[in-house]
Amino acid sequence: MRKALLIFLLCCLAPGLKAQPDTLRSAVISAVQGRGELLPGDTIPAGLLQRAVSVADAVRTFGGVQIRDYGGVGGLKTINVRSLGSEHTGVFLDGIRIDNTQNMQVDLGRYATDGLAGIRLYQGQKAGYLQSAKEYGNANALYLTSARPEKNGMTLRFRTGSFGTYAPALTVDRRFGSRISLRAQAEYTASDGRYPFHVSDSRTLPDGTHAGYDTVMTRQNGDLHSLRAALHLFGPGWHVQAWGYGSGRGLPGPVYKRAGTYPLSRDRQDDRNFFLQGEWTAGPIRLKGKLSHDALRFTDHSETNPDLAPAVFNYATDQAYLSAAGLLEPLPWWKISLAADLQATYMDADLRDFVYPFRLSGWLAAAQHVTAGPLQASASLLYEAHLDRFGTLGDSRFRDVLSPALILRYDPAAGWTFSAFAKRSWRLPSFNDLYYTNVGSANLRPEDAWQAGLDVSWSRTAGPWRFEAKAEGYVNRIRDKIIAVPTASQFRWSMYNIGDVRILGSDLRAVIRHEYISLDLRYTFQQARDHTAADKGQVPYIPIHSGSATLSGTWHGWTADLTIFATGERFTASSNLPMFRLVPWLTADADFGKRLPLKTGELTVRLSLRNLTGEQYEIVDRYPMPGRNVLLTLDYSF
């Protein structure tokens, strides 16, 4: 593997060494003024992005996406794209990946859309210039891009609604001349997490009699108190940001009908997350760096014996990351991207006989971009290596892999685009997968995923109307897929490998836009089969059919959005038996807003209505979702 990597890098570097300084400088210009990325990502319209409460709320309508939601404001919310799993979707904030100590699944509910310029989802990988090496290693990538302040100003926001929810927020923007700007943000969120839900069960006993229950319960121990703060400093070619998050929440756990004296879950989780990151671009070179600290405290209350003192588990993860990327342009139609990343991660815990793992990871990437008339192509090769050391055991483990990728794009005529890609992605089990008490499994094997996809898109503008259509087909195969399933609570998980998962799917989209109204229709078909099971059943929690429809309108400061989500049947186990079936569900959300100009600023009032039909459903088994609920948002900018 190392010989193949060296040969590939030398082939890339040899012609690049002949490039003149003027050519190198022109590479950055071509990166900005080029024809765009080979695989154009799926983007959320600016209006819908601003009206979303969180990133999890915003990305729900993406094709091929399932949002794992464990209910309520405080429930974990993760993204799963094309049945590959949350861990195979890299979430990048301003080009640097977000890592999280809770099962390597980024909780999108923690990230607000305030201050974001855009959210973009790429299938396969983003095929751009000056990328970090780490960006080549994801099966899918979700990019969050911060917006630079355009003027001095301040925004006060207050949200309130169902489940005792209230969330005041403040954003301050300042510009210092024409080149430097600052944005400071803070938001506090509180919710009691109490909502009613319907639960029922019926069964036949051995003696032939029927037993069961049908009742309405109230979700308990689902409260949340959190504080999020961010500070951005923008300059010419650089951006530095500090981000902090602290929360305390209850973990209600799965719902089972218990006897009257049987206690409900009283487990608690406290999080403290902080990172400092920045990037600097000068000519054909880009540097990125990040320091992060994540602390988690889990308080485990025994349900079977509530008189016992709770057990407390404390975990802390520290991480340092550095990336350097360069761009060469030997010829006007030929560009070469090179990148190298290094990351060190250490995990601590106050547990007896804990192994105190340390992981040193490195990534090397080389990519060539070629343009020939209407045809564009990009070929990349990523080498990654990971060394794990176990402090108390004096042991170590080294693993490395090569991951190639090929992307093609063909624009035969105005409005028509054909794209195709094939790539490999490889995911090493995280510390969370391996070492969390009551969670990890030290015998987990790395996931090895191969993807191939083809899409056709068409667009046309006729007067004030714009029409768009897109059809995508894809085939994925994953060996040793890691499945994470919550057990007694959202902290305790069951981790195991599925040997051979094969995925066949398609995404269809049709959009009609006008200055005042738009309609966005999406449909996803996913057949994700576990070929290690006897019946080759559908992989847990993946629906075969799903889709959404969004109708949006704007008129003289008024905005209105109606979104319908539909999800077909799913199963909680690869054995697709009736006992493991989750029923299909359909929900409808509506948002109404009005912008009111004032003498001293602008007031925006927005009312969000969720689950209008009062659907009783579960995205994760035995984690009931809320029924009808409402959220009122007041924004005052001046």
List keywords for this structure.
Maltoporin, Chain A; mainly beta; disordered N terminus; 35 strands; globular; 22-stranded antiparallel barrel; 638 residues; five-stranded mixed sheet; single chain
Main structural class? mainly beta
Q: Judging by the overall fold, what is the CATH architecture? A: Beta Barrel
Give the fraction of residues assigned to helices: under 10%
Cα radius of gyration in angstroms: 25 Å
CATH topology: Maltoporin, Chain A
The overall strand count is 35
Give the distance, in angstroms, between the N- and C-terminal Cα atoms: 58 Å
Mean pLDDT: 85
Number of H- or I-type helical stretches: 5
**Outline:** globular
CATH homologous superfamily designation:
TonB-dependent receptor, beta-barrel domain
Strand proportion, as a percent range, falls in: over 45%
Biggest β-sheet, characterized? 22 strands, antiparallel, barrel
Number of domains: 1
**Low-pLDDT runs:** 1-36
Using the coordinates above, name the CATH class: Mainly Beta
Tell me what you see in this structure.
By secondary structure, the chain is mainly beta. The chain has a single domain, classed as Maltoporin, Chain A (Beta Barrel), CATH 2.40.170. Helix content is 7%, strand content 59%. The protein contains five helices and 35 strands. The strands form six sheets. The protein has a 22-stranded antiparallel beta barrel. A five-stranded mixed beta sheet has the order 1-6-7-4-5. Mean pLDDT is 85; it is low at 1-36.
